[in-house]
Amino acid sequence: MKRRILSILLLLPILLCTVAPLTVFSAESADTKEPPAPKAEEADLANADTVLLYCLETDTVLRTKNADQKIYPATAVKLMTALLAYETIDDLTTPITVTSAMLEGVSGTYYGFKAGDTVSPEDLLKLLLLRKSNDAALILAHLSAGSTDAFVTAMNERADELGMENTFFTNPTGIHDASMTTTAEDLLILSLEFYGNTALHGWSGSAYLSCPTLSAGTIHNNNYFLSRYYNGTGTSYLFDAVSGMINGSTSQAGDVLITSATYKGLHYIAILLGGKKVDELPASYDITRALIEKDTQNFRYTKVLTDAEVLCELPVKLGSGADFAAVFAKETVECYLPKSLDLSRIQRKINLTAEELEAPVEEGDKVGTVSVWLDGKLLGETDLIVRSNIVRSGTEYRIAQITAYLSSSRFVVVALVVIGLFIVYFLINAIYREQVKKKYHSDRD
């Protein structure tokens, strides 16, 4: 016996030395987490005053710089000019005759129309979008509203309708005016409206277009993303992801580039104003391309709510075999969010239509809604449902009916009437017996 105890005592340190490292290793393995994915690069915005990158499918602004600050719109004005002219000119194909009044005050970039020239409104729109011609803008303004001033009034009214609260137009060309300002946020609203016009957006994204009523016959786009025809920089900026929008510049506003693009299955709008020159080359194209290729890689679809997760339980009365029903989201909610986002910032708000359910309960019954929020912004919302069938217990239902009837106002009234009748009966009976008693005593006397 003593030998066995001594052997165990000798072996104990060896066993401890053997087991202890395994235990420590196991604990470290359980706590080890996969390191977060490195953040993708971002576009360098140093050479742009104002930037906004937006994803259409997810209604998400991915990147901004001074997006809410008032700026000079320059060529971006032509998006509104094209949109309003397209919406208000009844006949776009029949040629019209240019008058001297239509060309009054033309300056900057222009095609060179003269009074007496004939041209179709459609070709004017193409010229406006591809060559950014200011004389085309003025002619369209007169065709639409009768005068430039009336057209500018209509431009501001349309801006108000769209909700462009920080925008004021003073001309249809974009020629600099210190009173004419906008914001990148407002230009996003305008760009989305323009994007929804398939004809205008399609023309703006063409490398060249046929214009039969113009002497040139064919006009080429001076957007370096779409065409190299007017590109004298010696550098190719062609980018096959780009689908349209507009470019231009003024000395006061700098380079302006509003771009729509399709990249890796999603659609984007990039707005850049106040672009600078770097080594005499426009930085706006490189910045916009980097926004689309790099910044979009910092986002991904994230499930912020799954339809397999039990969100809460509701008590069920009168149920057979179940006192509670699990509550689920009807649909999974996915959002386009930064990869680096701390998901603990996401909040859920559950809104139940009742505090308890009454059997029978059927799978798919709606019991409320759940919404998902991030920093006060609604990310998504879906119905709350139960995914179980709970039949009604016959015995409990009958007991509940009896209990309900006994506590009902009708039963209380009936009970009071019955009690009242009993009281009346006892009173009458007491009076009758008293009278009989008096008569009995009277007869004996």
Strand content: 25-35%
Number of domains: 3
Q: Tell me the strand order in the biggest sheet.
A: 16-18-19-14-13-17
Corresponding CATH superfamily of the largest domain = DD-peptidase/beta-lactamase superfamily
Rounded to the nearest angstrom, the distance between the terminal CA atoms is 116 Å
Which CATH first-tier class of the largest domain would you pick? Alpha Beta
Shape category:
elongated
Structure classification:
alpha+beta
Radius of gyration from the alpha-carbon trace, in angstroms: 39 Å
Write the layout of secondary structure elements.
Layout (H helix, E strand, L loop, with lengths): L1 H30 L18 E6 L4 E6 L11 H12 L7 E2 L20 E2 L1 H11 L2 H12 L2 H15 L21 H13 L1 H7 L3 E4 L5 E4 L21 E9 L3 E10 L2 E10 L1 E2 L2 E2 H11 L5 E7 L4 E8 L6 E6 L3 E6 L7 E7 L4 E2 L7 E9 L2 E10 L7 H13 L2 H36 L1
Parallel strand pairs: 13-17
Antiparallel strand pairs: 1-2, 1-9, 3-4, 5-6, 7-8, 8-9, 10-11, 12-15, 13-14, 14-19, 16-18, 18-19
Helix pairs in contact: 2-3, 2-4, 3-4, 4-5
